[in-house]
Amino acid sequence: MRDDSETIGKVAPETLAATVFGRTGAADPAVVGGPSYGEDAAVLDLGERYLVVSTDPISLAVGRVGSLGVDVACNDVAVAGATPRWLTVCVFLPSGSDALDAITRGIDEAARRADVAVVGGHTEYAPALDRPTLVFTCMGLADRYVTTGGARPGDRVLVTKGAGIEATAILATDFRDDLAPTVPGDVLDEAATYYDEVSVRAEAAALTPLASAMHDPTEGGLLAGMLELAVASGIALDLDPDAIPIREATARCCAAAGVDPLRVFGSGALLATVPADAVDEARAALDDLGVTVADVGEVVAADDPGVRLGETVVDEPVRDEMYDLWA
Fold this sequence. Notes:
With 327 residues, the protein is α+β, with helices and mostly antiparallel strands. The protein has helices at 13-19, 65-78, 100-114, 165-174, 176-179, 185-192, 201-207, 221-233, 248-257, 279-289, 323-326; strands at 31-33, 42-45, 50-58, 83-93, 117-125, 133-142, 156-160, 213-215, 235-239, 271-274, 293-301, 306-309, 312-314.
């Protein structure tokens, strides 16, 4: 297992287990979904409905940090089966930064598109930072909640849109000059529009009645999301690597940047497991939305949770390869 002191990104699961998950304050029977590996949202039982709450930081997508943060925060609530409704935002700015106007404009525009209200937050200058850092908390209500850890043997594994949607948009904007010598301008222009596809709210709502588990792959990409779902559910995912959708623009941008499309920021794809007899209904629901979906494999029982990609087995946390580009 990797040493967290030598890397960036998510803390290793054994460290979380030792230092985080057992230190959650007072017990409250309303908490029906609390801190757990792979679970990005908390679920509170309000009686007739559930309140779903998720918190997410964002700092590295310089061009769209405000709007992207809204979509990513809302995604985590949506894949838990809730309708995102309220946001709070903490904005930390480097000393002397003039980015606040652009950030709040982006937040406001994205929140209006998502039909969510920004109800509070905090803003301050933090001299230790070299770029703006935002922390979003999203809240929403659900009649039925869906966890990352609900996959069952025999379920089919579905992936919407494609791998690396978010990363492709970041590469085409923040790193456009670096990619321009090898990636044609029209491909970069198309890739930049992928910011508009980061939200999975609509497809999550369509699959909530059918899904046994749903997850929003973010840091570490689709592969990290798959592993988190497998570990949270205590199963293995037996996948056909050739069935995993990777768009041409994503493949070209990732190749030029030297990163793996399966191991880079993956917002925009919805990872879901559904019973085998519900696949056709799931496809029809997504077709009605104009959202593409691929059946990429099966959930299987396993003593050691992990992801089987053909002959490759992934059972260790996945480090996002985009981080090296900002080093």
